[in-house]
Amino acid sequence: MIALRENDLDQAIVEAVKIKGSKILGICLGMQLLGTESTEDGFTSGLGLIPGGVDKFNPQKAREYKVPHIGFDLVHSQSDAQLFKGLPQAADFYFVHSFRMLADGLSGKHATCNYGDAFLASYEQDNIFATQFHPEKSQTNGLLLLKNFLTL
Asked: What is the pTM of this model?
């Protein structure tokens, strides 16, 4: 966020999405930057395009899980989510992250993954799309998801 702000890219992104209606796809850290705030390296305000904050995995709830969360895991999507068109409602995608957003109280379509806690694996509302996982590393499922985004 510091680099985005120093180069006035934060305002350019928000203007492109909110005023001009451009589609955006945030992937992993890109999704986290779209949130309202993050606790990574102290408190930081995000772009505010997704109404949710970013926190580290809860070590109490994820005791038996290693952090960072690395590898393929099941993502449970809503049947009418545009990004997941043609994919099963439970599909594997590749993750590598230590921070996550929670899905509680979000409007829009979203998918979740459970890693000690259910967390937000993807989000879509209007022209804003995001995935915590890496579709570019998720083989056939990821390629289809990227194709779905590009054809919206």
From this structure: 0.95
